[in-house]
Design brief:
Blueprint: E1 28-34, E2 37-42, E3 48-50, H1 75-89, E4 99-102, H2 108-115, E5 120-123, H3 127-134, E6 140-141, H4 145-150, E7 155-161, H5 170-180, E8 181-192, H6 197-202, E9 215-216, H7 219-228, E10 231-238, E11 241-244, H8 245-257, E12 275-278, E13 283-290
Parallel strand pairs: 4-5, 4-7, 5-6, 7-8
Antiparallel strand pairs: 1-2, 2-3, 3-9, 8-13, 10-13, 11-12
Helix pairs in contact: 1-2
Length: 291
């Protein structure tokens, strides 16, 4: 269950052009149609992807999105961010790094890091998100990864959490991320696991097959694309995290049942104060090293 299910990271130019967005093969298999969106699979590299008419991750207002709860402060954030930072620290000392969060959403993780004396920055190309959540703080920039990479900037650590699944051209995106990373630097990412047991069990009804997700990676796909981008995999595994009960209920009601069970605006709901550790083995976490 992604905590940034409508993540805005990069407005790719052009949609499907008849080839796999990962390996450029034209040996493509039709999988199924869901909510009017075709889903396909590359026979060559086994990568799965969807082909919407327009990228639904870019809208003109927050009201156009199905779920924006992940953007707001949540009592589970501190627990999750502490766990993530501790995990990252096992590979590199964050206090000595210059960190970039690409597609930083509402900036919550960056603020957590900076509050713990860590030099961290975020880029967010969505005007809607930038204007509402980020514009008042100088360590956030409204910029795409392509533009930043073209400037020759370098970072010792890059974060791509809940990003790759929202991209039309994930290989190009990772190429640019690699350009931004210093030699010996680390890239930390998470993405949905299209090779998970639940994805195979539910088929087209798998909840991650939704309009906001365009790219579906397996562990093998990640290994292949990272090798092409001069990124060595140090760690790749399914991990869970903490969710508040009200988030879980709202996610289920919006993406599975399409009806309201619990009001989004009930800030004092006691369910929001209950954190639940959850690992459905549908999210891949990986650590990559440049060079």
């Amino acid at each position: 269950m992604s905590h940034r299910s409508a993540k805005h990271v990069n407005k790719d130019e052009g949609l499907y052009k008849g080839v796999c967005p990962l390996c450029n093969s034209n040996n493509i298999k039709e999988l199924f149609l869901k909510e009017g969106i075709p889903y396909k699979k590359c026979r060559s590299c086994k990568f799965k992807f969807s082909v919407p008419i327009n990228n639904p991750n870019f809208q003109d207002s927050l009201n156009e999105y199905d779920n924006t709860q992940y953007l707001e402060d949540n009592i589970a954030d501190r627990v999750n961010y502490q766990s993530i930072a501790n995990w990252m620290n096992t590979y590199t000392d964050l206090t000595k790094q210059k960190i970039l969060d690409v597609g930083c959403g509402s900036g919550k993780f960056i603020r957590y890091l900076r509050n713990n004396s860590i030099e961290a920055y975020g880029i967010e190309p969505s005007k809607v998100l930038f204007d509402k959540y980020l514009s008042q703080e100088t360590y956030f920039r409204k910029e795409s990864i392509e533009n930043l990479a073209s400037k020759g900037e370098k970072y010792s650590t890059i974060v791509l959490f809940d990003v790759l699944e929202h991209l039309e051209s994930p290989k190009r995106f990772l190429d640019n991320a690699s350009k931004l990373l210093k030699n010996g630097g680390h890239l930390f990412l998470s993405t949905i696991d299209a090779g998970s047991v639940l994805s195979m069990l539910f088929g087209k009804q798998w909840h991650f097959y939704n309009k906001y997700h365009l790219s579906y990676f397996s562990k093998a796909n990640i290994r292949d694309v990272c090798a092409d981008c001069d990124l060595k995999i140090l760690f790749i595994k399914n991990h869970g995290k903490y969710f508040s009960m009200d988030y879980i209920i709202q996610y289920v009601q919006e993406f599975l049942f399409r009806k309201t069970i619990l009001s989004k605006n009930n800030k004092n709901n006691w369910l929001g104060r209950i954190n639940v550790p959850l690992n459905t083995f549908e999210i891949l976490y990986a650590v990559l090293k440049k060079g």
